[in-house]
Structures are given as C-alpha cells and as structure tokens.
Design brief:
It holds the Pfam family FeS_assembly_P. The protein is built from two helices and seven strands. The protein is α/β, with parallel strands linked by helices. It folds into two domains: 69 residues, 2-Layer Sandwich (GMP Synthetase, Chain A, domain 3); 43 residues, no CATH class. The protein binds zinc ion. The site of zinc ion has 8 residues, from loops.
Length: 146
C-alpha cells in the first residue's frame, strides 16, 4: 500500500559507470524487512531489464519518521494505521527528559476520536504499537516516531 519512496527508505538512484545503484536506508538498524526490500528492488529492476544492479544500504544519516512523505502518511491513515507525527523528533537545544511515560494523544484513524489508549507498546512489528479507541472500540496500530 505504501512505497519505499512514501516511507523515505529510497534515498537515491544513480549510475556508477554501467551499474545502476539504488541506495536505501533501513527504518531502523534491526528492521527485518530490509533484506526482503533489497531483494524486491533487485528483482523488480532485473525484471524491468536492468542487468547490472547494486542495491546499497546507507546507515548515515539515520532514517527518521520525518522522512515519511505526506502521501505516505495519508495512505497509512487511509488503511487504518495511525501515521507518525511529523516533526515529533525534530528538536534543537536542550531535550526535556521525563521518567514517567508520556501521554500519547493519538487520534483514532477510524472515527477521529482522541479518546484512545495504548494497549501494547509493540504491534505486529517492533516499529508499531497497539492502541484501542474508547469511542468506537476499534483497535488500531500506530507507527512509532523514531
Ligand atoms: Zn474510533
């Protein structure tokens, strides 16, 4: 439903001599999907007639959820997944720290209510958390800000 471009994983496509070089950045270093994503890019390009393909991984700068495009956020919301808040990780100067869990004000992607609560910090994948809407009762996943 969302492309690697929507998610900000695709960083660059260029030629190094005769080799088509695709540079990707994993969403986080332990993401198990990156191997499958590499293989899919390689297979798709070879299927499209590119024989000399190199899929490279760039770990720096590190991926952040701010790289998810507006289109990617729209698609996630449309598919019932609460998208990460844009700019939530952007900070300058001192960072306030707290020892208590921050209150998350997430909006239910189904009914729009902000009366939601986290039911699990981990969802179907480590980068998502599980929530339930107290208004419509529906559970939903949220892509965590990184
Ligand atoms: Zn709801």
């Amino acid at each position: 439903m969302v492309t690697i471009d929507d998610l900000g994983i695709l960083r660059d496509v260029s030629y190094d001599g005769a080799t088509l070089v695709v540079t990707i950045t994993p969403t986080y270093s332990g993401c198990p999907a990156i191997g499958a994503i590499r293989a899919d890019i390689d297979a798709a390009l070879r299927g499209a007639g590119f024989d000399d393909v190199d899929v490279r991984t760039a770990l720096h700068p590190a991926w952040t959820t701010d790289w998810v495009s507006a289109e990617g956020r729209r698609k996630l919301h449309e598919h019932g997944i609460s998208p990460p808040t844009h700019g939530a990780t952007a900070t300058t100067g001192p960072v306030p720290l707290t020892l208590s869990l921050p209150t998350r004000l997430l909006t239910c992607p189904r009914c729009g209510s902000s009366d939601t609560r986290e039911t699990s910090h981990f969802g179907s994948t480590a980068c998502k958390s599980l929530h339930r809407c107290r208004s419509c009762g529906e559970p939903f996943e949220h892509v965590k800000e990184l």
